[in-house]
Amino acid sequence: MTAGDLLVVGLDLDTGRHVHIEDRPIDQWRALGYGHRESLVCAACFLGLDGVTVGTRVPLIPRGRIGGARRHHFAHPPHMAPPGGHHPETLWHLEAKAQLERWARSLPNVTEVRQEQWIPGRERRADVHVRLADGSRLALEAQSSLITDSLWRQRHRDYAAAGIRDIWFMRPGAALPHVLLAEQSAVCILDLADRQVRVPWGQPHPRTDRWWESEDLSRYALHHPPCTGDDLHEETVPLAQLGLDGGGLVLSEELEHKLAAEHQDILHKAAEARRQAEQDNQRAHQLAARASHHRAHLSQTPPSRPAGQAARPVRRAVPSRRRCAVCGGRLADVLVRYGAHISIRTADGWVDCLDQPCAAPRPKPAPAAPAPHAA
């Protein structure tokens, strides 16, 4: 079974509507197809697509059997398909419109669905036009190939001017237009064979310095719709689980719960990062204040001298900013601004040098033993 077999769309001449093999029992389609009534014809041939004359009636053969390995489908009779067959994009577009029409008709808040409906003023014709019970109007666009940014903007502006919200369904394998992501427009990838939709989400953005202060924290978790330049993550759901409202596409409850969980998780992580930053800042201020206090204490304490020794001027060396004001040890670059160590190693282990009353004088190294004389 080829992809073309699965995508052949029928046209019921009695109703004038595009039809799918699953719309009726296969025995009913056989009664309308090739060799019988022949009111079931190929929609692509009738529309004159892929070089076929407009109005060409090619009756279809419904194929497949209950329990068979091959899925039920419409097919052209032998030697009655156009030379080379229909283009895959042509067949996908026809079938996509048919599936989107059936899906929209199944939704409880939809009152009217039409394919190839002109908008007021006839500036644009929607693939599938939908009217909701609240009066909102939507255009479901089935896009089989990459659309340019300028052409998309023209369509989008025409729909917006007519008060219509457009929703785009892309063919699998077609590149997503960057303009859709830039405009935060609803976009899906429609898999016709499985009747599923892949919804692109944006991967979490890299966390920058003080990221928790951003206005939109959801960007640091999986988010929908994705942003321009995002690495994409796809969530797959049956088309039947999606919905429509005046705002456009409605995600399934499962996807909504997952989005909410992602958002709550990043809010929790942001609160933790904010608390940690406040604690670090408070600790830094405390260290700076204690270091300043010790520097003031050392500068005001006069040096001791033996009894009876006359006082003499003392030349105080200006301490290096790179040495601890308490213990005199060398400071790492990160501690220079505080002027003191956070902790030092002693014989009893690590202690906070700022907790010591003053720096104990360092013992002078013992003189080296004299070298033995040569015999």
Describe the structure.
With 375 residues, the chain is an alpha+beta fold. Helix content is 27%, strand content 21%. Among the domains are: 1-86, no CATH class; 87-260, Trna Endonuclease, Chain: A, domain 1 (3-Layer(aba) Sandwich), CATH 3.40.1350. Helix 5 links the parallel strand 8 (137-143) and strand 9 (164-170). The protein is rod-shaped, with a radius of gyration of 38 Å. Residues 1-6 and 354-365 have low confidence and may be disordered.
CATH-defined fold name of the domain at 87-260: Trna Endonuclease, Chain: A, domain 1
Radius of gyration: 38 Å
Mean pLDDT: 80
What is the tally of helical segments?
7
Q: What is the oligomeric state here?
A: single chain
What is the helix content? 25-40%
Q: Give the termini distance in whole angstroms.
A: 106 Å
The CATH level-2 architecture of the domain at 87-260 is identified as 3-Layer(aba) Sandwich
Number of β-strand runs: 16
Proportion of β residues? Answer: 15-25%
Structural class: alpha+beta
Order of helices and strands: HEEHEHEEHEEEHEHEEEEEHEE
Shape: rod-shaped
Largest sheet: 7 strands, mixed
CATH class of the domain at 87-260: Alpha Beta
Q: State the low-pLDDT regions, or none.
A: 1-6, 354-365
Largest beta sheet: strand ordering = 6-7-8-9-10-11-12
